[in-house]
Design goal:
Layout (H helix, E strand, L loop, with lengths): L4 H29 L30 H13 L6 E5 L5 H17 L2 H14 L3 E8 L4 E7 L4 E3 L11 E9 H5 L17 H4 L21 H4 L6 E9 L5 E6 L5 E5 L10 E4 L13 H25 L4 E3 L7 H10 L17 H4 E3 L10 H15 L15 H40 L6 E4 L6 E4 L20 E5 L9 H17 L5 H11 L9 H26 L53
Antiparallel strand pairs: 1-14, 2-3, 2-9, 4-5, 5-6, 6-7, 7-8, 10-11, 12-13
Helix pairs in contact: 2-4, 3-12, 8-11, 13-14
């Protein structure tokens, strides 16, 4: 049963009230990731911190979140995302080939690697991230957007993402964008104008909503200041997945919907994908990696700040006894400006006053606090929680045994294994979304030129070639006919130099193996050598093969015409005339001593009966 207006209004108000708490903590963890935390300790700061001038801020931050996220994303996200499509029925093998080409070409055109990088970064810094699939009507192709999790609310009372009953996306529109969606009349032919005119008149435009602002960021930034130029209005897009599914747009504090209709896409019921890396064991909201180290990271930053303050306060300060000199103002100015070697300060001291009595320095602290032990302990705890060995960030000399480095590398890969699988699941979902949107919006007479990766061969895809579902088909979403599997990726094994080294070891075996396609092997070798330009294209190879076949047929035909049927010619193996060897005479008759009356008889040691016919 679908949600009614009262339930939708209550869900919006409830999530909005709870979002203030989540956004405050998310803004803080993002400030740690961007090294823009500022004075985040409140009253828990060393004495005298408030007196430090803003231009002389001595706060110190160790950016472990960025170090971890950057390393993690580089290890789990493929640089060239690809998907393999396997058909479960024999007659679907050819459509599966066309679907695979269409998916990989689309992933390449939308720069899917950037989408994966941003989604994985958000899922690590925040508890979760969202990827939304949409149909781009201008380019007539699918597209993907990474949505900030503070703008997406959903049903957390279920155990699986596939079972959520609703999802609410918070969108903030300018006055121009909002008015472009309002109907001009009841029979407005423009399909983009879908908002109810009477409800749209109640929209209240104003400044950007305060509860959606990032309070940790500098308000002088361009993207923050530009928000003050426009007039904004908040619109809630409600996806109701109960029953057949409904799609609504609501204004702030309004019970009537701006728009109500069916879900946006027929074959992509839920256009959102939620990516999480850690389970919070409470709901399906996820857990941030930065939150796990937040308490220790605060103490580490505070210790580093204390060390810097202590180092500054330990610097001796020059003191001047103005009662023992005649020119105190001149001495004060010269001391302040004497910053280079060889500087001279003129001191006009009174009679009997020594230099030690006139100029002195403050004493340095005799007891130096021990910071290093506490810092090392904090760093060990952080690295233990995040599992980031120092060598993974390019640090050398931290291990004396190569075996220890290998074991640490294996442990890191094992830890990233489940995160890699999450990325593979996201790629599979993207593949299903691409096919579903093309099945819905690809015209019957439209032909898509698609490039087969990684070569430059082009194929043409239509609804018939990919065996697309009809719009009014009775089959549900994602029938069990195809498997969309992401191609496994490893930043170490997939390195070009590593692949060249492995190929060189087995190249001779591969060249001699009849089960290996030699043309593809040479093509792969040229790709790794970055010499694809020396390869002949498919059309040229087909033309040469056809020409060679024609020449062979012509040569065979000419050989048959010269020899004729039944003749022994040079083409059939005969020697040229005059070159036949002369047979030597055989003793006692035979071929060289006269013709024998019996065929094949070489002569006898007695006289034969003359009455025997010679032709027998």
């Amino acid at each position: 049963m679908s949600l009614n207006k009262k339930q939708i209004r209550g869900l919006i108000d409830t999530h909005k009230a709870k979002s203030h708490i989540d956004q405050r903590s998310w803004d803080q963890v993002r400030s740690w990731y961007t090294s823009n935390a500022g004075n985040q300790y409140g009253t828990d700061v060393p004495q005298g911190a408030e007196a430090v001038d803003e231009m002389q801020d001595l706060s110190f931050q160790t950016n472990y979140p960025y170090a971890f996220v950057d390393t993690m994303v580089a290890n789990i996200c493929p640089n060239n995302p690809e998907v393999t499509v396997n058909a479960r029925r024999k007659h679907l093998h050819e459509p599966a080939r066309y679907r695979e080409a269409l998916i990989n070409d689309t992933l390449n055109r939308v720069r899917s690697h950037r989408i994966l990088w941003r989604a994985a970064t958000m899922a690590s810094v925040y508890p979760r991230s969202f990827v939304k699939t949409v149909w781009n009507f201008k380019r007539r192709s699918p597209d993907f957007l990474v949505i900030d999790p503070r703008y997406v609310w959903y049903d957390m009372s279920v155990d699986r993402w596939e079972d959520i009953r609703y999802l609410i996306e918070v969108t903030v529109l300018t006055r121009q964008d909002f008015e472009s969606r309002v109907k001009r009349s009841e029979n407005d032919p423009n399909e983009d104008r879908v908002y109810n005119t009477k409800v749209a008149e109640k929209a209240q435009f104003g400044a950007y909503p305060e509860w959606l602002r990032d309070r940790q960021r500098d308000q002088t930034l361009m993207n923050e200041s530009s928000k003050e130029v426009f007039e904004w209005v908040t619109v809630y897009e409600v996806y109701d997945f109960s029953g057949e599914g409904r799609y609504h747009h609501y204004l702030e504090d309004e019970d009537e919907a701006l728009f109500s209709g069916d879900l946006p896409y027929r074959f992509v019921r839920n256009p959102f994908y939620r990516l999480i890396f850690n389970d919070n064991l409470e709901n399906i909201g996820g857990l941030s990696d930065v939150t796990l180290i937040a308490p220790v990271l605060e103490r580490l930053n505070e210790l580093d700040t204390l060390m810097l303050w202590f180092a500054q306060t330990a610097i001796p300060i020059t003191m001047l006894n103005t009662g023992l000199v005649d020119n105190p103002e001149r001495i004060r100015t010269q001391l302040r400006e004497a910053t280079s070697p060889g500087s001279i300060v003129e001191v006009a001291g009174k009679s009997g006053a020594s230099m030690a009595d006139i100029i002195g320095h403050t004493m340095t602290p005799s007891l130096s606090p021990e910071f290093m032990a506490s810092r090392d302990r904090c760093m060990q705890v952080i690295e233990f929680i995040l599992g980031i060995p120092q060598y993974s960030r390019g640090v050398v000399g931290v291990s004396d045994v190569a075996t220890e480095v290998a074991l640490a590398d294996t442990a890191t890969r094992t830890r990233n294994g489940r995160r890699q699988q999450q990325i593979y699941d996201l790629l599979s979902w993207q593949a299903q979304g691409i096919v579903g949107l093309y099945e819905e919006f690809l015209a019957e007479d439209e032909i898509l030129p698609v490039r087969l990766l990684p070569n430059s061969e082009m194929i043409e895809i239509t609804r018939a070639s990919m065996l697309a579902r009809e719009i009014l088909a009775g089959r549900g979403e994602e029938p069990l006919e195809y498997d969309y599997l992401a191609v496994p990726y490893s930043p170490t094994e997939n390195n070009r130099l590593v692949q060249l080294r492995n190929l060189s070891q087995y190249f001779e075996l591969l060249m001699q193996n009849p089960q290996v396609d030699q043309s593809r092997l040479i093509q792969k070798l040229c790709e790794l050598l970055q010499m694809e330009d020396v390869l002949k294209d498919t059309a040229q190879l087909e033309a040469e093969a056809k020409s060679a076949e024609q020449q062979a047929q012509q040569a065979q035909a000419q050989a048959g015409m010269v020899g004729g049927p039944g003749n022994d010619t040079i083409a059939s193996g005969s020697l040229p005339p005059g070159t036949e060897p002369v047979m030597p005479p055989l003793p006692m008759g035979g071929a060289g001593n006269g013709q024998s009356p019996l065929t094949g008889f070489g002569g006898a040691p007695f006289d034969l009966n003359p009455n025997i016919p010679k032709d027998q």
